[in-house]
Amino acid sequence: MLPLLTCVALAAPPPADWQKAEAKHLRNIKQLTFDYVRAGEGYFSPDGKRIIFQAEEKDGGNPFYQIYVMDLKTKRFRRISPGVGKTTCSYFSPDGKRILFASSHLDPDARKKQAAEYEQRKEDARKGIHRRYRWDFDEHMDIFDVAADGSGKLRRLTDAKGYDAEGSYSPDGKRIVFCSNRSGEKNFELYIMDADGKNVRKLTNAPGCYNGGPFFSPDGKRVIFRSDRKKKDHLQLFVINADGTGERALTDDLNWVQWGPYWYRDGKHIVYAGADHSNPRERPNYDLYWMNVTTGKKVRLTYFPGADVLPVFSPDGKKIMWTSTRGGDRSSQLFIAEFVPPKDEK
Q1: In the predicted structure, residue 206 carries a pLDDT above the cut 50
Q2: DSSP letter at 344?
Q3: Average pLDDT, stretch 270-294?
Q4: How far apart, in whole angstroms, are the C-alpha atoms of residue 170 and residue 223?
Q5: What count of other Cβ atoms lies within 10 Å of the Cβ of residue 227?
Q6: What DSSP string describes 74-98?
Q7: What is the DSSP letter of 150?
Q8: Range 105-126 average pLDDT
Q9: What does the alpha-carbon distance between residue 198 and residue 192 come to, in Å, rounded to a whole number?
Q10: How far apart are CA 290 and CA 297, in angstroms?
């Protein structure tokens, strides 16, 4: 999910400076996706050999994201989602045998909405309008899983009225944490269910707010997530115990939007994206940051004059992958690099 991705940057160090600054923690940066209008939100398979991500194909007949799996060695990829409607938030099961994602393909008007989006893009191009990307929390979005090779039938895991998406597995593969507004149109809360969709229980309680993008900690005891409960649309980072206790904010600068947190393998650190939104006349520039969840100490990782968002680590913690517009054509694509943890924060 990319709720606040902006592709226009402002002030940044000269190119030689920002590249040198990034080299401290990111080595051998490479672009992973090329054959798409846009691509992003990628995650590694448990063995680190494949990635799963969302992308819009060129001339694919659908202007919305679909889900793809790529082999990192051969760069071969295949679509594993239905190809109709919108999809997002894919994730490998811990044993690598199944894939989780959200989809609106059961929406009876899915194809009409695809056609309408294409027409809107033509109109925008004619008028010279560049729309800011925003996630629409489609009420037809539900969570499904399928065999990791895309074979077999999709299994529907949620069927409550409203939006169900942004799911990810617990480390043991027995639970899924996800975002839903099943309790009310404006109540986007976190829920945990069994991996087969049964035994749904509410995790957060912040009515009238958005709580989303959750991930279990490596030991399965905590959940990291984002929420705008302090200021609408100004996401901040939170952590909560998996039993619903001990919730606390990790960031509280309401001039900033801080989102997309992901755990490092040690369970002591996270990586996330943040940008200063204090000046309404300027577009924010998102960069990646490393944080110690106990001390709150932060280290900036990226300095590119453009968008860097949705970072994740490989299972061994040696690589980092994220969505960026640094490819040259201003489209969002996936990038990967060798990761060097900040020495003072190991």
Answers
A1: yes
A2: G
A3: 95
A4: 9
A5: 23
A6: T--EEE-S-SSS-EEEEEE-TTSSE
A7: S
A8: 94
A9: 9
A10: 8
In the chain, % of residues over pLDDT 70: 95
For 272-280, which contacts have Cβ atoms below 8 Å and span 24 or more sequence positions? 272/237, 272/311, 273/308, 273/309, 273/310, 273/311, 273/322, 275/6, 277/234
DSSP secondary structure string, 6-18?
---------HHHH
- For residue 13, pLDDT over 60 is answered with no
- Report phi then psi at 28, rounded to 5: 55, 55
What are the residue ranges spanned by the domains of the chain? Answer: 15-341
Q: With contact defined as beta carbons under 8 Å apart, do 304 and 287 qualify?
A: yes
Contact 56, 41 (CB under 8 A): no
Across 170-195, average pLDDT:
96
Contacts of 133 (CB under 8 A, 6+ apart): 2, 5, 6
Q: Are 25 and 33 in contact (CB under 8 A)?
A: no
Where does the pLDDT of residue 9 fall: very low under 50, low under 70, confident under 90, or very high at 90 and above?
A: very low
pLDDT at 16: 72
Q: Give the burial string for 12-28 (b: 16+ CB within 10 Å, else e).
A: eeeeeebeebbeebbee
The CATH code for residues 15-341 is 2.120.10.30
- The order of strands in the sheet holding 236-241 is 211-216, 222-227, 236-241, 248-249
For residue 27, give the 3-state DSSP assignment: strand
Question: What DSSP state is assigned to residue 183?
Answer: T
Structure tokens at 298: 């932060």
> Which residue is listed with tokens 């490393």?
290
Q: Give the Å distances, CA to CA, from 188 to 110, 112, 166, 172.
A: 23, 27, 11, 25
pLDDT at 14 over 80: no
3-state secondary structure string across 282-342: CCCCCEEEEEECCCCCEEECCCCCCCEEEEEECCCCCEEEEEECCCCCCCCEEEEEEECCC
Q: What is the pLDDT of residue 132?
A: 75
